[in-house]
Design goal:
The chain has one domain: Spore Coat Polysaccharide Biosynthesis Protein SpsA, Chain A (Alpha-Beta Complex). The model has no long low-confidence stretch (mean pLDDT 94). Helices cover 23% and strands 26% of the residues. The strands form 4 sheets. The chain has a 7-stranded mixed β-sheet with strand order 5-4-1-6-11-8-12, sandwiched between helices.
Length: 213
């Protein structure tokens, strides 16, 4: 699943007329980089949630056939459902096995084919070194387990794999992901890894310009 429903407030005015996942990096829209990477990694079924200017994303990517994947769109009009709410709404298309989720506004060379959920876990997170704009980080690592606090904190990369059981007890509507992550971490069921390759959160016009340079 590619998360592409956000408004992109920090990217305005660029996102007033273009959804953030369609902003161009190195000659290609951000979300198209993801679709190609997923296809090359062996994924054949992709779900994309949309809301703000979502029709533009559908018009650009179509049904996915030219990339070698089948794309379904989870339209969250009139209001995006936040990260967890959007995933939960699309869960019937993602279950019953583990599934990968990636934020649509990232630029990365992370090898998506290697991400999986270990037995006994219900989530696997990719963490990265803290960027300047998020110096405090999100979580720590204890071996291959994510912990809420550690001497060294890292930033959640917006790349993860989940089992449907991760969302047990949830109901429809808009709700955030972090409380579910903390529940999984507290139960010792959240695995993690540190990635030191290319990863950029394309969250502002300045970061987009720097990345294209």
């Amino acid at each position: 699943m590619i998360l592409a429903a956000g408004r992109g407030e920090r990217m305005r005015p660029l996102t007033d007329t273009t959804p953030k996942p369609l902003l161009t990096v190195h000659g290609r829209p951000l979300i198209e980089h993801h679709v190609i990477s997923l296809a090359l990694a062996g994924f054949r079924s992709v779900v994309i949630n949309t809301s703000w200017l979502g029709a533009q994303i559908q018009d650009h990517l179509g049904d996915g056939s030219r990339y070698g994947v089948a794309i379904r769109y989870s339209d969250e009009q009139p209001q995006a459902l936040e990260t967890a709410g959007g995933i939960f709404r699309a869960l019937p298309w993602l279950a019953p096995g583990p599934f990968l989720v990636i934020n649509g506004d990232l630029f990365t060379d992370y090898p998506l084919e290697r991400l999986g959920v270990a037995p006994g876990s219900n989530a696997q997170l990719v963490l990265v070194a803290n960027p300047e704009h998020h110096a405090a980080g999100d979580f720590g690592l204890d071996g291959d387990r994510v912990v809420a606090e550690a001497a060294t904190q890292y930033t959640f990369a917006g790349i993860a794999a989940y089992r449907p059981i991760f969302f047990d007890g949830c109901s429809g509507g808009a709700f955030p992901l972090k409380p579910l992550l903390l529940r999984s971490i507290a139960a010792g069921r959240c695995g993690g890894e540190l990635y030191d390759g290319l990863w950029e959160d394309v969250g502002t016009p300045e970061r987009l310009e720097r990345l294209n340079r």
